[in-house]
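Q: What structure does this chain adopt?
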Amino acid sequence: GGPPPPPPPPPQSHHRGLALARVRLTPKIVRSLPLVGPADTHSETVTCDTEVVGLRAHATKRAKYYAYRYSLRGVKRLLWLGDVESISLAEAREMALRARAMVARGVHPTTEAARRRAAVTVWKFFRSEHLPLLKSTIKSWRTSRQRLRDHVKPVLGHLPIMDVTARDLKRLYDELAERTTVSTANRVLAAASGLLKHAVREGIIRKNPASAVRRRRETGARLRFLDRDEVAAFAGALRKEPRLYVRAFLELALLTGLRRSELLGLRWRDLDLAVRCVHLAETKAGGSRDVPISSAAAAVLARLPRGADSHYVFRGSRPDRPLSDPSKHCRRIYKAAGITGCTLHTLRHTFASHALAGGVALQEIAALLGHRSQRTTMIYAHIGSGAMRSAAEAVGEALGGISAIEHQRRTPKNQGDAVHGEE
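A:
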């Protein structure tokens, strides 16, 4: 009744200190390959794949890795593909096939790999290779891009990717954990690890250095949100912000609890201020949903100029793009307000916390925040129901009374405000 026994090791032959075997590799066989022990007479075991000729699984005293053996113009070489913990067998076969194609063109894969490793910086690899992969595989690619752009690029972006060490990443991680939160540091490290693991699969680096960085435990500490005094300080600093769209974006984040990506993606066609509703065409949970907003939030949106050259509510310096890097602006406002330990997402927590303190039911808060992922769309009739409408208004009354734009009724045209978010 126990687990099935591991597959028997493939028959081996010995040659120049190596134990050689040939078999069609499977993930189970690779996992079962033993490391070389002190009593073994050979220094390394090599198991050759019969499906992709040239692909080999090596096991030494300390590690197991994949490599591709080839011969070009009478010269035999071994291309290191990656350790078995970093890449899968399927990925190793794909890399071996790409190397085989290079050999067929008369190019040494080892020479080409060395050239690529020397030329590719962290940010160049992100822009050319990793970002397209993120866009095609995950819905939250904008969040990953933001984490890498805001935290990894300034410190490591200029380095050749092959020069990034575990020490570099640990220094970045520790600094983030102290300056922001452990949760933020963990997520940034995860984004960096994903990029480096991709570089391993491409054969640019041999091992993911992020795997050596130990993550701190996220304790069940008090959820960080702004109390009323901090909201007042935040609003006071926000009133001095000259960029209209930055000011409006941050206030809407506070008054609606919407996610960063949801606010940035807002287009004018998504608003129905007559019934105080915002339509989110794409949400983190997938699908779309309609969200009621308070009269204070609707007033902020009503004062924004609707330019004919941009479809975005929160336009950036270019009309065809939304506001860039609101997290940077939010950090600047926090600093001016004397508030520490907060991020842009803290405004979402503040919305929910003040709603709960105001007596709004948890299920209504979850609906406003979009936590009920089983529902992809909410129709206007549902939004107009008393419970959710009252919930939005309750938070609007709690936070809108000390809002920045509520107290700032001047228009950008006659007061010389900087309209564009990045001027």
